[in-house]
Every structure is written in C-alpha cells, then in structure tokens.
Amino acid sequence: MPMPKYCASKTILLVEDDNAMLTVIQTELTKAGACVLTAENGQRGLEVALSEHPDLITLDLLMPVLDGMGFLKKLREDDWGKTAKVLILTSVEQLKKVEEAVGLGAYDYLFKSDWSIDEVTRKIMQKLAA
Predict the structure, then answer these.
(1) Hey, what's the torsion of the CAs at 48, 56, 15, 5, to 10 degrees?
(2) Nearest CA to 69 among 92, 107, 100?
(3) What is the largest CA-CA distance in the chain?
(4) pTM of the full predicted structure?
C-alpha cells in the first residue's frame, strides 16, 4: 500500500507474498523510523516501485504473478529503476538464483532462514542509511 508523498523518512518497499513475514518486517521497520510501502506480489511491487521511487526495495524471489527475477528485469528497463537499490530477502537458498539477481543489480541478499527478524530489520536499516 503506497504511503503519502510527504513521508519525512527514507522509504522502503517490501515485496513479499508471505503476509505474516510482511507484517512483522513492516512493523519492525516502522518502529525503526522508516516509511514502509508493501506489495504482495512482484507485479504490484513493480507498480509501486515505479510510481513511488522508494529509497530501498526488499524483494522475495519466489512470488505469485511476477517472481523476483521478473521484477528485477522489468525494474532495470525503467530509467529510474536502472539504479534502484534492491536487497534480496528470500528463503530460496539457490546460489545460482542469487548470483542471477546480483547480476541484475541487486546489491545484497539475505536468506530468511539465517536471520532473526531483529537482524533483518537492522540489516535493512543499515542498507537504507548507506
């Protein structure tokens, strides 16, 4: 869901189809002071990204409608999207998929199973500040 244009903090777009994960991360990032946009699938995420231009996008690779790789490919076709910061946050521990995402300009990745919610929040906030 898009946030008002007047949000004073940096904006993060969470593209995640797991509603429980999405809600928990959104809550923690909001507590940490970020403005948070959300999208439940890659197609909706792409629409929000291209209209709102968030400072950072966290992207799951396995999603309905448009998967993370399709999202990245389409995002990179847009003038703004060519340089958008994307952090892969996924449960897919397939190095080939992660390497492909990095090849498309994702600048870091986290495997959900390796991190607690607090650690994920801290890592995202660090990336947002960079």
Answers:
(1) -30
(2) 100
(3) 39
(4) 0.84
- What the block records as the tokens of 114 is 């390796």
CA pseudo-torsion sign 117, 121, 127, 128: positive
Tokens of 97: 């998929």
Instruction: Band the pLDDT of 31: cuts 50, 70, 90.
Output: confident
> Among residues 10, 7, 17, which one has the least CA distance to residue 44?
17
pLDDT in tens, 80-102: 999 999 988 777 666 677 677 76
pLDDT at 4 over 60: no
Please name the amino acid found at residue 37: L
**3-class SS letters over the chain:** CCCCCCCCCCEEEEECCCHHHHHHHHHHHHHCCCEEEEECCHHHHHHHHHHHCCCEEEECCCCCCCCHHHHHHHHCCCCCHHHCCEEEEECCCCHHHHHHHHHCCCCEEEEHHHCCHHHHHHHHHHHHHC
CA–chain centroid gap for 87, Å, is: 6
Report the distance separating Cα 97 and Cα 4, nearest Å: 34
